[in-house]
Design a protein that fits this description.
five-stranded mixed β-sheet; 3 domains; homodimer; seven-stranded mixed β-sheet; 34% helix; alpha+beta
């Protein structure tokens, strides 16, 4: 690199997985935990997760669900009550066999998900049709033993929310599962994360263990691979039967409930990094950002710059901007600017002695790297407007990046070719069992089935659906 | 109960533990989980916990600590690095021996607390004095196997926050531990929970396993027993040495850190119930309440009352009141009023057809049971003012209840007598080892040592301190 600066990160084009790992380390986002597959979420990344939680939680509450908390430990026997469920989760379980210094009589499972234990209590709480729908959610950690862990994407422990609802009819359950996918998950991902997710239904082989239908939000990452960002399941009467979730209807007849479950997790942190990151680091969309703007003191030789920068930071805060002041002048400006770039703070306001003497500051946007000089007085209003621009621009640019790598094809061959760099949209009627197997041997899967217009399948006949095929995380 | 109504709850004076259990059930707060010692936190109680989290989290952030997340699973070997720590926690551990279908080579412990795993990472992150203080916090579940579980008070799994900080000097660590106890915990408990906690230091025998000093907030429950509501520990250099948390000081010399840890948990839910509850149920202080006021439609024969009540609820919401509308007129008014009483909602606004015709509503306060008739127009302002009154009155009444059962004594005999109904304040110089043992055989312990004025001991000479003695949960 004669004469040049060594890049802080491995370039994405050179080695995408290593770039991802570099971002995690250099932006101080997360570390591997000491027990294989676990992770440590560092403060900067955790603040982003807290913002995700707040935004998703608001939408979940608006959807009428109430938060509750169920135990981490589940009797092993509970999982066995639903045949597909236990078959799906058994290979991933962590099992506690010793408690309080003694071998346990019945080993307990560390929850991989909570359909079973929540089903047990819903059955107690639901008596009559008046108790329905019962709409619950919990924010919790879950454990699924991972053989090939990767921080945020596949970890043995992760944080998530899991919604669990019981309804009187199949149609009610279906409507609610669809509502969550569209109005909670997609809305959050598009409007806040600025990630233009596709929605669709999983094919039978890819469904949640115990579900009759799994709806999904799928995002395209910077390397053209797909990431499943969130799912919403119709569980039919599988868990209702297993846990006897029944109710007396208006006519006094005993009926079985219909249930759903749905979740998003810290995996979205991985999606955020890989959908928006560039060779300089993370790029955080303003609506998500815990720090939307950083006011940087460039240099302060006579002690007059820091107070002015602090005053500007206060006025930004009063204007509703989540702002941070960086007055660590004992560290070089370039190094600090690189740090905030790495961390993807959407807007940097650089306050230096010369600009200040001229009554101005430099405002830099992280998404496209442009810088403008801005009169000091109007800075708060300018930054507020700029944050909106950045939010919109990031969604546009992510949508363009996705669309340019999405190809309509009409053969499995062409789908495989297109899936090398992005998404292939293939008529579902062309995908038979051998085709799925053939794609599988190239690590390509059907990410979801959707209508030609990109909506959930609903009642659309199968032979009119499109299969979105891609490599995936 | 000829002619009378059977009480909904066991009276407190008759059987306090059973009253507590009745409140948990009837107010739909919590259930026992299927695995012994675990609990299910139901939506109404979880909403209170969310409010506790929000209020405590705001204070923790104001104290400069940042949230992060560390793994649930800790290698068994980590705990063994600090001798007192492993000795203290070993009998309470839940141990995972099987993961992903295989016996694990090294069993992993489900965290009972996170000093060890956080110590390991702090040691990596701290290099120089510039990295200090390092102030971290996490909201998490922890597991301590309980032989005599009681919901919220002693559960095998509970939710809490655990703060972990590293400092350059012993004085810095001490100051921070005291700041957390006073300005985060006591402030929250007094100002929001309306529980007049005592502060003090634990005697050596009652310290956290691995601490050099444990500070505590102790509250008096409705039966005169004490509940430890939160603790803040100076850990000296015990964990710093065990995990090699050292730093380069200004002069380039290697120094060992001084650390603290501090936590409050869902145990506070038990404290809330037992400090404020009465024979009609829970009483929630307004600043904590997730629902501060409920607008109850008494009856609605012509369909005109519900819209008026809904309009009133909206105007209360606009006035900043966390309000709920109860328009379930198919259920009798008395039954619903009892339900909200049980749940301890601070203010009930009862809207009935006759009052409405007269342009008025009935406003009932939960804390003292009084009801007033209120012109409809001024209701939002009146409720806002009333909520402040209720908050203040609840603190006054809890303080009076505590003070009337707190006795200054000057012998162990008198302390034992006083501790039958409340707290005894006994000069610490009178408490020798045999005295502690004698008290112990009556289930009385030294809850904390404090100055005569009720402050933390600080540098006060030991023979001027007061030992607060009581039975406890």
């Amino acid at each position: 690199m004669a004469g040049g600066k060594a890049p802080v990160l491995t370039p994405r084009s050179e080695d995408f997985p290593r770039w991802y790992q570099d971002v995690l380390n250099k932006a101080e986002l997360a570390d591997n935990g000491p027990v294989r597959g676990t992770m440590v979420i560092r403060p900067y990344a955790y603040a982003l997760w807290e913002r995700m939680v707040a935004e998703v939680d608001t939408r979940i509450k608006a959807a009428g669900a109430e938060n509750a908390y169920f135990p981490l430990f589940i009797p092993e026997s509970y999982l066995q009550r639903e045949a597909e469920h236990v078959e799906g989760f058994s290979p991933e379980l962590a099992i506690v066999t010793v408690g309080g210094g003694k071998e346990l009589e019945e080993p307990v499972v560390v929850r991989p998900t909570s359909e079973t234990v929540i089903g047990e209590f819903m059955a107690k709480w639901i008596q009559s049709y008046r108790d329905l729908p019962l709409l619950l959610n919990q924010w919790a950690n879950v454990v699924r033993w991972e053989l090939r862990p990767r921080v945020f994407l596949r970890t043995s422990e992760f944080l998530w929310q899991e919604g669990h609802t019981a309804h009187a009819t199949e149609a009610d359950a279906r409507d609610y599962a669809e509502f969550i996918l569209r109005s909670v998950y997609r809305d959050f991902m598009v409007e806040v994360l600025a990630i233009p997710v596709l929605v669709g239904a999983k094919i039978a082989e890819e469904r949640f263990a115990g579900a009759t239908n799994t709806l999904t939000c799928e995002a395209m990452m910077g390397d053209g691979k797909a990431l499943q960002m969130g799912t919403s399941h119709e569980l039919g009467q599988n868990f209702a039967r297993a846990f006897d979730m029944s109710y007396l209807d208006e006519h006094g007849a005993q009926q079985m409930c219909w249930t759903t479950s749905w979740g998003v997790s810290t995996r979205m942190m991985g999606g955020l990094i890989m959908a928006h990151g560039d060779d300089a680091g993370l790029r955080v969309p303003p609506r998500l950002a815990a720090t939307q703007a950083v006011v940087l003191v460039v240099r302060d030789d006579d002690g007059s710059v820091t107070p002015a920068a602090a005053e500007l930071a206060s006025s930004l805060e009063r204007a509703g901007v989540r702002v941070r002041l960086d007055d660590r002048v004992s560290t070089g400006f370039g190094r600090r600017a690189t740090e905030w770039e790495l961390k993807g703070v959407p807007v940097r306001v650089e306050v230096g002695p010369r600009d200040l003497a001229d009554g101005q500051v430099v405002v830099a946007r992280r998404d496209d790297g442009t810088k403008v000089t801005q009169p000091l007085g109007g800075t708060p209003e300018a930054v507020v407007a700029l944050l909106d621009d950045v939010q919109a621009a990031m969604l546009v640019s992510a949508t363009e990046a996705r669309d340019v790598r999405t190809v309509d094809v009409d053969s499995v061959d062409d789908a495989l070719e297109a899936a090398r760099t992005g998404f292939a949209r293939l008529p579902w009627r062309l995908v038979d069992a051998p085709a799925i197997q053939r794609m599988g041997s190239s690590a390509v899967t059907v990410r979801c089935l959707q209508t030609v217009d990109g909506d959930l399948p609903g009642t659309t006949p199968a032979d009119e659906l499109v299969a979105v095929c891609a490599r995936s995380y």
